[in-house]
Amino acid sequence: MTAKKIPIKVEDDVVVSIEYTLRLEDGDVIDSSEGREPLAYIQGKGQIVRGLERELYGMNVGDEKAVTVAPQEGYGQYDDERLQRVPRDSFPSDMELEEGLNVRMRDVSSGQLLDAYIEEVEDEAVTLDFNHPLAGETLFFDVKVVSLREASSDELDHGHAHDGNHGH
């Protein structure tokens, strides 16, 4: 039986656990691991925003870093082409529609589920925004690497880290 190698730095196929705080340019905290379990992901698999993942390579347990991620390395630039007006009757008549509401839509041609946010509600039409809510935003992360471990073959096959308690 071979002992598992304990990674000493962030590299591809390593399960990385980080504590983080995410702020926008105005300083507002919009997400944080504070009071929760650290975020665990497999490095190099695109499970976190590209710009943050790139900046974590080579870090060790205990290392902390402030990372600024430009929109194109985060959730992309805001694209007006991703706004779409749909007839009001595309929604159930008893559904209360309000600006900012997240709705899940199915693309009629591909069958793919898409998330959108209601931009505007009018009597005859609803404008949906298919941009990510953070599209166009520069992201400011404060991160700390709290643990590193080799990803199991199951985790690599499934494409995500499994926690010790629930398997996923």
Layout of secondary structure:
Layout: E1 14-23, E2 29-32, E3 39-42, H1 50-56, E4 64-69, E5 83-87, E6 102-106, E7 113-121, E8 125-129, E9 139-150, H2 153-158
Antiparallel strand pairs: 1-2, 1-3, 1-9, 4-9, 5-8, 6-7, 7-8
Features:
Chitinase A, domain 3; 2 helices; 168 residues; 4-stranded antiparallel sheet; Thrombin, subunit H; mainly beta
Task: Describe what you observe in this structure.
This protein is mainly beta and 168 residues long. It has 2 domains: 14-75 and 136-158, Roll (Chitinase A, domain 3), CATH 3.10.50; 80-129, Thrombin, subunit H (Beta Barrel), CATH 2.40.10.330. Helix content is 8%, strand content 36%. It is built from 2 helices and 9 strands. It has helices at residues 50-56, 153-158; strands at residues 14-23, 29-32, 39-42, 64-69, 83-87, 102-106, 113-121, 125-129, 139-150. Strands 1, 2, 3, 4 and 9 form a 5-stranded antiparallel sheet that branches. It has a 4-stranded antiparallel sheet with strand order 5-8-7-6, with no helix packed on it. Strand 1 and strand 2 form a beta hairpin. The longest helix has 7 residues, at 50-56. It is elongated and about 60 Å long. The two termini are 25 Å apart. The model is unreliable at 164-168 (pLDDT under 50).
